[in-house]
Amino acid sequence: MRMYDLIAKKRDGKALTTEEINYLIDGYVKGEIPDYQMSAFLMAVYFQGMTKEETHAMTMAVAHSGDMVDLSGITGIKVDKHSTGGVGDKITLIIAPMVAAQGVRVAKMSGRGLGHTGGTIDKLESIPGFRTDLNQKEFFETVNKTGLSVIGQSGNMTPADKMMYALRDVTATVESIPLIAVSIMGKKLAAGSDCILLDVKTGSGAFMKSVDDAILLAQEMVEIGERAGKRTEAVITNMDVPLGKNIGNALEVQEAVAILKGEGPKDLHQESVNLAASMLHLAGKGSLEECKVMAEKTLTDGSALSHFADMVKAQGGDETYIQHPENFKDTAFHYEVKAQKSGYITHMNTEEIGISSTLLGAGRETKESIIDPAAGIVIEAKTGDMVKEGDLLATLYANKEELFEASAKRYANAIEIKDEAPSKQHVIFARVTRDGVERFD
Ligand code: URA
């Protein structure tokens, strides 16, 4: 077999066999296939796409390119969840304890933030003492004791994805639905849970800018998961507006705690209950409606909050910050962004708002950047709200005053204010299961 022939085959729009896909993934990880040939192949996939057979075969090859996590040391059904990434997305912090409070295990590996999106690991590490580098024994013990644990990726999981993602990033081949599906599902299958909930975000702060593309990606991923024997569902959620009010690591933990206490913004509450219900449903706890009631109950009876505090304590964190989020250290400086004119907020460019938060020190511009856990943004007015000239749009938090100028400019430019009210904002657009697509108006 020659890589040259596989590139030519894909360039000409033909489908590769499973054997050929295994050859190219294996050869690439072993260093036998050079980056320039893999780049050409990825670009051919970008233009020609892949069949369902090819996408499945490549996902399995990526999943098996490194360690496959064996979660059999954890009792009960394990449900995983993946978000395609967004701004203000603290959903994992909320729904993992909600689900655990109903007896379904969450043994989750999460990532750090990069670019305009945040990462769950950075958020958790803003809690003093919290460890995300548990070894396997500690990880299993934490899940068996508290029902949940969230750690960073360790060991040699999916090296093929790490290598291909880095290459796609510099060869303009990230935006390919089959390649994104392979990348996400390869990692999810290697992570070892029994069921997978996918939160596919759409809008100006997401990879998938349109609902239709988000549905196509979701369908592809659900099919891969189900074919691999994992119950898999996807929910298409709105990332055309930041989720909740807080952006930034410690600020997002504080908002997650508010939701766990039955308080907090309505959009975040609604999305959390729906996603937690989907996870419970996947785990066989009942109908979706029954699972929504179960999910709500964990917020009103305090059980989700106490599961979160138990996990924080078990992973070395100071759980008093969960009971008293006001203990989180504030930044030295605040800056208020005010409305330049009166009218309705008709659009928020969410990627730009994510960048505005990164400029305050809340996110990473490169993998090596050091983040400021206290930095970020608290939003006071969102899409659909009416504001008067001079009203507060958002408060920026930073420990260096000189960071405000660029960040505030970016934030203000990201907000569109017009005379006409915009149409109603969706929180959830659709649900994708093995049985089909259900759209919500
Ligand atoms: N997230 C991933 O993990 N992989 C992609 O290709 C895109 C988003």
Task: Provide a compact summary of the structure.
With 441 residues, the protein is of the alpha+beta class. It has 17 helices and 14 strands.
Explain what you see.
By secondary structure, the protein is of the alpha+beta class. It has three domains: 3-49, Transferase, Pyrimidine Nucleoside Phosphorylase, Chain A, domain 3 (Up-down Bundle), CATH 1.20.970.10; 79-324, Pyrimidine Nucleoside Phosphorylase, Chain A, domain 2; 331-418, Aldehyde Oxidoreductase, domain 3 (Alpha-Beta Complex), CATH 3.90.1170. It is built from 17 helices and 14 strands. A five-stranded mixed β-sheet has the order 1-4-5-13-14, sandwiched between helices. The chain has a four-stranded antiparallel β-sheet with strand order 6-9-11-7, with helices on both faces. Helix 5 packs across helix 12 and helix 5 (91-101) crosses helix 14. The termini are far apart. The structure holds uracil. Uracil binds next to helix 9.
Summarize the topology:
Layout: H1 3-11, H2 18-29, H3 35-48, H4 52-63, E1 79-83, H5 91-101, E2 106-110, H6 120-125, H7 136-146, E3 148-152, H8 159-170, H9 177-190, E4 195-202, H10 211-227, E5 231-238, E6 246-247, H11 249-260, H12 266-282, H13 288-300, H14 303-314, H15 320-323, E7 333-338, E8 343-348, H16 350-359, E9 376-379, E10 386-387, E11 392-398, H17 404-414, E12 415-418, E13 428-433, E14 436-439
Parallel strand pairs: 1-4, 2-3, 4-5
Antiparallel strand pairs: 5-13, 6-9, 7-11, 8-10, 8-12, 9-11, 13-14
Helix pairs in contact: 1-3, 2-4, 4-9, 5-11, 5-12, 5-14, 9-10, 12-13, 16-17
The structure holds uracil.
